[in-house]
Amino acid sequence: MLLKPLDRVTEPHALDNFRTSVRKFLRDYMKTTPPHVRARSWVAASEELSRALAQQGWLGLTLPKSHGGAGLDYYARFVLSEELLACGAPVAAHWIADRQSAPVIMRYGTEAQKDFYVPKVCRGEAFFCIGMSEPDSGSDLASIRSRAVPNDKGWVLNGSKIWTTVAHHCHYMIALVRTSGETADRQQGLSQMIIDLSLPGITIRPIEDMAGDVHFNEVFFEDVQLAPDALIGQEGKGWEQVNAELSFERSGPERIYSSIALLSLWIDELRAQSVIDQPTHNMVGALVSEMAVLRGMSLAVTQALINGENPMVQASLVKDYGTEFEQRVIQRITDWLGARPDFAVSGELIRTLAYLEQMGVTFSLRGGTREILRGIIARGLGMR
User: Fold this and answer.
1) What is the CATH number of the domain that holds 23?
2) Which residues contact 122 (CB under 8 A, 6 or more apart)?
3) Tens of pLDDT along 261-286?
4) CATH, residue 219
5) H/E element holding 8?
6) Does one domain contain both 230 and 143?
7) 247 and 367, same structural domain?
8) CA 128 – CA 320 distance, rounded (Å)
9) Could you give the C-alpha distances from 124 to 40, 45, 164, in angstroms and in order?
């Protein structure tokens, strides 16, 4: 077995006051927001909230003070993320920039890139999306065909990306593109580029989902002229950089709490109607206990990041298990309500459930499909 087990950890008690402050802020900010809106959470964007968090000093918690961050560790960001998601705050505007784009720039970027982009992220003035998936490629990132060709002004980019979360709200994209070789070369010749989405030749086409929301997009590049400093990190090393980036994306509590608004509302209504039968109590206990296990796993990955490790395989385990759990919460509550025609279901519970029944299928797609994740896990276990 090649996979290194992670230690069992708990968050530091020193963060208790910070959690209390965040919870109070969000209680006031979200007090009139109904559960079916809270269920949208990290696919819903509010630039107002993002900038309000920045004013509190809560964007860029893990980024260095020299670049506008708070210089704290990943536990502080875990606490903030958990509170934001647990209350259903609309975090999508800043989420990717704060979670992975700014850390990637700090790790691989030039000093000029760090000085330009990172303080803007911390002030809530620069929102990023991720350009990975492409049409007809599914989750096979190594088959990327978008290409950046060098010229006397920098790079000329052509191609397209799809399923790009909140691109229509973003100022920049960090895209994985081909800078040398051919598609058959797979991981070789891939590089990461920072793309200003206001440049000529870029078209962003929103994709409306079954619930009538827009958070995914198609993005098209037609002879887009990029500056020489658009390249981040080393040319041809994009595959290694992306794998490090995905550890940030797959390890957080957002892979646990996508169904929390539904679970919380259902439990509230059980209490209100004094439902006390043993099978229901067992079901609630099982779901809450499983969430606690997932939370512990996510905290362990957080500790690995603090230790300077790259827990790609462990993060993939958390993401795969977590999204399966999120989907199962929806199905279990649906089945419970179907078997209880005497239960007085509120209109808000119906609206929240209806939204998540439509959206739940996407939980195991975003951030890497189940099949791709299990391939990563299998390689980590030495099984392939």
Assistant:
1) 1.10.540.10
2) 54, 59, 60, 63, 67, 68, 69, 102
3) 999 999 999 999 999 899 999 999 99
4) 2.40.110.10
5) none
6) yes
7) yes
8) 24
9) 20, 12, 20
> What pTM value is reported for the model?
0.86
DSSP letter for 271, please.
Answer: H
Residue type for 12, please? P
- pLDDT by residue (tens digit) across 162-198? 989 899 999 999 999 999 877 655 677 899 999 999 9
Q: Do 229 and 253 lie in a common domain? A: no
Q: Is residue 8, in this structure, part of any structural domain at all?
A: no
Q: With CA atoms as reference, report the closest residue to 305 among 83, 68, 100.
A: 100
Helix residue spans in the chain (DSSP H): 16-29, 35-38, 47-55, 74-86, 92-96, 102-108, 111-122, 238-251, 260-272, 278-306, 312-338, 347-359, 370-380
Helix/strand/coil for 3: coil
Q: Chunk the chain into consecutive blocks of 10 residues (it has 384) and report each block's average pLDDT, rounded to whole numbers.
A: 56 87 96 94 91 96 95 90 94 93 94 98 96 78 86 96 92 95 73 97 92 88 97 91 70 81 96 94 96 90 80 82 93 96 95 93 75 74 77
Q: Using CA of residue 186, residue 190, residue 192, residue 197, what is the dihedral sign?
A: negative
Instruction: Output b/e per residue, 222-244; b: 16+ Cβ within 10 A.
Output: eebebeeebbbbebbebbebbeb
The DSSP bridge partners found for residue 160 are 220
Q: φ and ψ at 233, to 5 degrees? A: 75, -150
Q: Please give the span between the terminal C-alpha atoms of the chain, in angstroms, as a whole number.
A: 12
